[in-house]
Structures are given as structure tokens and as C-alpha cells.
TrEMBL record:
TM annotation in the entry: 101-124
Membrane topology: Single-pass type I membrane protein
Superkingdom in the source lineage: Eukaryota
Main location: membrane
Occurrences of domain Fibronectin type-III (ranges): 1-90
Keywords: ATP-binding, Kinase, Membrane, Nucleotide-binding, Receptor, Transferase, Transmembrane, Transmembrane helix, Tyrosine-protein kinase
Protein name, UniProt field: receptor protein-tyrosine kinase
Catalytic activity: L-tyrosyl-[protein] + ATP = O-phospho-L-tyrosyl-[protein] + ADP + H(+)
Cellular component terms per the entry's GO annotation: membrane
Native source species: Grus japonensis
Gene3D superfamilies the record matches: Immunoglobulins, Phosphorylase Kinase, domain 1, Transcription Factor, Ets-1, Transferase(Phosphotransferase) domain 1
Domain Protein kinase as annotated: residue spans: 184-455
């Protein structure tokens, strides 16, 4: 039974009773909610360790539907029935505030005794809600600022690992629509996946025009585990809704072959696309692609999803050169990736794309995804060159450990190589967040002249002192160091006499 404790214009506080017989200790509760009017469009979810929550960021005077489920070590329970509650309007907030003023005035006039009596009266009649509400409002504000609290990102969904479902087939039906196969027209085979063929085709939706789709099929003769692994990708993809994440249209699970239907990306995988069009794009076009990938990754990291296999081969490109992150499936992705190799710590890892801490002790995080993002930047700027060329995996690991980093590809703007180096910092907390990467790339796109200084130009400077390359994005050395999260080196730069950007740009390798 879920109760509404109070509601303001933008928030609702709920509480509920703990279940009588949970299957094991309760880890937390997941609260899923959406506007009643827009049930089909999107929903949000949040978690709480206690049997209560304050949900913020809601619209005033709007009906919301809530369901709650409990997570124990055994996995998730089913969702509770739906509960409908409405946020308050202006008058409800005013009434609450007027209530406060009235009580304070009465207390002042009547003195302490009256206050005690009133307090008792209010407590007994349960009408102290104005006080609780005011207190919870300030608590709510405090928590809204705490990004890692129960209300991490009001309005942004949190990723739910389908493996935490007792029955993973429940997960797929929760996150993916079942498509009637008669709506799908398969046209041709476009590739081979680990589980079966990948085809292109059309999807008809009643009342809408046909859309081009890619259809991944599960080949016959599969065992249960393969079916589950195949559908895991749909359970993950179905939770995302972002222009730079490949969109799931739905699944076919009730007839054979089992299929996953996704949006069609005319130009296929980014690595082969770039190799096919070597040297064809402007730097701004390449930066636009990188910006799209960073934006998709920002969305994933905000949702708490770690990709683990970010590489150009796992990015798809459409006819407008829009790049979208694809290939979801956690460890299974790595099993399927031909680049993944077994490591001494066990498990398969695509060494060249992976951060050292993830290779050494499987510490995967959004920061290790940022390392991989730096490698994707390098792949893009070199038109699909293989990172570290023909070096062996072992040599790559050793060289990185010794401090070696990929040099800038030919024709690469210095600012982009700086960003790559920034993503490849050994200390993972020093790497940029995806939000930093997006805003850095946005700045470059808005000031294209910042892309004119190539790494080659910076290095040949001592021989050509005539023209001074600059980093016009930054006004001072310390501004520049802060922007690449290397502010801790300000003193070293100053002590070494590099007090202006001009001097930094004249720095030679020696
Ligand atoms: O490089 P490609 O042409 O792009 O070859 C691979 C192949 O299927 C096997 O994965 C292509 N592919 C995968 N998903 C899609 C999609 N959504 N749209 C278009 N092509 C796709 C991929």
C-alpha cells in the first residue's frame, strides 16, 4: 500500500509498508513513475533504500502513476499495483504557507503555553503536516543537489541491469515492445552477428508510414542461455531514448525466428565507413561525429550504464552522418567482439580500447569508458586506423604502463589530441567526464579557428618562429590547464617559466 504523505507543485512524498515476507534482505526499492496522460511516452525511475521517497522535478497539478518494487539479493519482485497521485497547484502551496503563518502568529500571541497546547493538538490530529512538509522541502532541495543520492537525476531514468531479474524474459518484456512479425518485411542480409544474420528491411506501424529497420535474428537450434544472451541487448537498448543511441523498435519473441528490430543506419559501422571514405571529411564534420558519440555516452553515464566496449566498430552511422552508440550487452559484448582477448585476470577484453585499471583488475566505469572514447577519437581522426597499429596486445599494455600514448594522427588539431591525452590519464579521476567532453567539443565547433592549429604546427614551431599558433579557446595558461583538468600542474608551468599561452605553444619536446 503506497501513501502520499504530501505534495507540493513539483514534488510528491510517498511512503509504504515494507513487504511482510521479502525473499532475503531488502537492498532497495525502485520507484517507477510517469505522467498519467503520457503513459506511452516515457517514464522515470528512482531508488530509495528506505520505504519512502520524495520525488522532485514534477509538473504542477498533474496526475502521476507510481509503481514500486523491491530488490533483494534474489533479484526484483514484481511491481506493485499502480498508484495515482496528483501534484499540488499554486493554491495548495499557498495554503500550506498560510497555515504556517497562522500557526506562528497564534503561537506569538498565545505564548509558550498555547504553543505547547497547539503543538500537542496538531500532533494528535496529524495536522503537523505543514511542518513536516516545510522540513522535507528543505531536505528535498538538499538531496536534489546530491547527484549520488536516491534522487540522482530527477527526470532521468536509471539503468536497470536485466540480469538482476529473477526471470530475464520478464526484463525483455518490460523494456521492449513485442512486434507482430507480419509487420516486418525482411529485404536482404547485411551482415553476420554472433547469434545469426543481420538483415535490413521495413517495419510497418498502423497509422504510420513504413520505416527502414535492421533486424538481428537468432539462428535456430539455440539453447536457452543463447536466447537469453541475445535478448539481453534488447532489454538494455529498450531502456535508452537518445538521438545518439541506437533505437530499439521492438522484439519478436513469441514466434520463430526470434528477432531484435532496431533503427536502420544507412552507413553501417563507423570504422569501416571511415576507412571507405579516407580523407573525405572536413575536421568540423569529424568533430561533429565525435560530439554525437560523446553526447550519447554522456546520456549512458548519466543513467549509470557502463558500455565497456566503446570502439568505432560499435558505433553506427546514418545517412546524415549522425553517429549512434550500439552493441549493448555487458560481458556478452566482449565475448562477441573479435578484438577482445583473454587477460590474466580472466574475462575477455578489447585491450587496445580499454583503460589500464579495467585490464588489470576489471575496474570498468564511466571513466574507463572515457579512456575508450579517447581511442575512438583517435580512430576517427585517423579515418579508421588500427590503434597502436600492429603492436601486440602485450606490447600495448607495457607501453601504456610506461607512459607511452598514441601520437596525434596526421592533420589532427592540437586541441583534439590534447583531449585524447586527457582521456588517457592513468589516474581515472583525472579523466574528463562526458559532460566535459561534450562542452569542450561544442566550444571547438563554435570557434572553428581553434581547430586550425595542428599538432604538426606546434612541433615545428621552433623552426618557423614567424607565426605563433595559439589556443584561442583559453585566455590564460591556468584557464587552459583547468579546462583539461590539469589545474594541479599550474605551479609547474609557472615555475618553468610558461606564463602565457604563447609560450606554451612554443614549447618544444626538449
Ligand atoms: O559495417 P556494417 O555494414 O554495419 O556491417 C555490420 C553488420 O550489420 C553486422 O553487424 C551492420 N549493422 C548492424 N546494425 C545495423 C543497423 N542498425 N543499421 C545498419 N546496419 C547495421 C553493421
Amino acid at each position: 500500500m503506497v501513501r502520499k504523505d504530501w505534495a507540493s507543485q513539483n514534488s510528491i512524498a510517498l511512503s509504504w509498508q515494507e513487504p511482510d515476507f521479502p525473499h532475503g534482505a531488502i537492498l532497495d526499492y525502485e520507484i517507477k513513475y510517469y505522467e498519467k496522460e503520457h503513459e506511452q511516452l516515457s517514464y522515470s525511475s528512482t531508488r530509495s533504500k528506505a520505504p519512502s521517497v520524495i520525488i522532485t522535478g514534477l509538473k504542477p497539478a498533474t496526475k502521476y502513476i507510481f509503481h514500486i518494487r523491491v530488490r533483494t539479493a534474489a533479484g526484483y519482485s514484481g511491481y506493485s499495483q499502480k498508484f495515482e497521485f496528483e501534484t499540488g497547484d499554486e493554491t495548495s502551496d499557498m495554503a500550506a504557507e498560510q497555515g504556517q503563518i497562522l500557526v506562528i502568529a497564534t503561537a506569538a500571541v498565545g505564548g509558550f503555553t498555547l504553543l505547547v497546547i497547539l503543538t500537542l493538538f496538531f500532533l494528535i490530529t496529524g495536522r503537523c503536516q505543514w511542518y513536516i512538509k516545510a522540513k522535507m522541502k528543505s531536505e528535498e532541495k538538499r538531496r536534489a543537489h546530491l547527484q549520488n543520492g536516491d534522487l540522482r537525476f530527477p527526470g532521468v531514468k536509471t539503468y536497470i541491469d536485466p540480469d538482476t531479474y529473477e526471470d530475464p524474459s520478464l526484463a525483455v518484456h518490460e523494456f521492449a515492445k513485442e512486434i507482430d512479425p507480419s509487420r516486418i518485411r525482411i529485404e536482404r542480409v547485411i551482415g553476420a552477428g554472433e547469434f545469426g544474420e543481420v538483415c535490413s528491411g521495413r517495419l510497418k506501424t498502423p497509422g504510420k508510414r513504413e520505416i527502414p529497420v535492421a533486424i538481428k535474428t537468432l539462428k535456430g537450434g539455440y539453447v536457452d542461455r543463447q536466447r537469453r544472451d541475445f535478448l539481453r541487448e534488447a532489454s538494455i537498448m529498450g531502456q535508452f531514448d537518445h538521438p545518439n543511441i541506437i533505437r530499439l523498435e521492438g522484439v519478436v519473441t513469441k514466434s520463430r525466428p526470434v528477432m531484435i528490430v532496431v533503427e536502420y543506419m544507412e552507413n553501417g559501422s563507423l570504422d569501416s565507413f571511415l576507412r571507405k571514405h579516407d580523407g573525405h571529411f572536413t575536421v568540423i564534420q569529424l568533430v561533429g561525429m565525435l560530439r554525437g558519440i560523446a553526447s550519447g555516452m554522456k546520456y549512458l553515464s548519466d543513467m549509470g550504464y557502463v558500455h565497456r566496449d566503446l570502439a568505432a566498430r560499435n558505433i553506427l552511422v546514418n545517412s546524415n552522418l549522425m553517429c549512434k552508440v550500439s552493441d549493448f550487452g555487458l560481458s556478452r559484448v566482449l565475448e562477441d567482439d573479435p578484438e577482445a582477448a583473454y587477460t590474466t585476470s580472466g574475462g575477455k577484453i578489447p585491450i587496445r580500447w580499454t583503460a589500464p585499471e579495467a585490464i588489470a583488475y576489471r575496474k570498468f566505469s564511466s571513466a574507463s569508458d572515457a579512456w575508450s572514447y579517447g581511442i575512438v577519437m583517435w580512430e576517427v581522426m585517423s579515418y579508421g586506423e588500427r590503434p597502436y597499429w600492429e603492436m601486440s596486445n602485450q606490447d600495448v599494455i607495457l607501453s601504456i604502463e610506461e607512459g607511452y600514448r598514441l601520437p596525434a594522427p596526421m592533420g589532427c588539431p592540437a586541441s583534439l589530441h590534447q583531449l585524447m591525452l586527457h582521456c588517457w590519464q592513468k589516474e581515472r579521476n583525472h579523466r574528463p567526464k562526458f559532460s566535459d567532453i561534450v562542452s569542450f567539443l561544442d566550444k571547438l565547433i563554435r570557434n572553428p579557428s581553434t581547430l586550425h592549429t595542428l599538432v604538426e604546427d606546434v612541433l615545428v614551431m621552433p623552426d618557423s618562429p614567424g607565426e605563433v599558433p595559439e589556443y584561442p579557446l583559453f585566455v590564460s595558461v591556468s584557464d587552459w590547464l583547468d579546462s583539461i583538468k590539469m589545474g594541479q600542474y599550474k605551479n609547474n608551468f609557472m615555475a618553468a617559466g610558461f606564463t602565457t599561452l604563447d609560450m606554451v605553444s612554443r614549447m618544444s619536446i626538449e
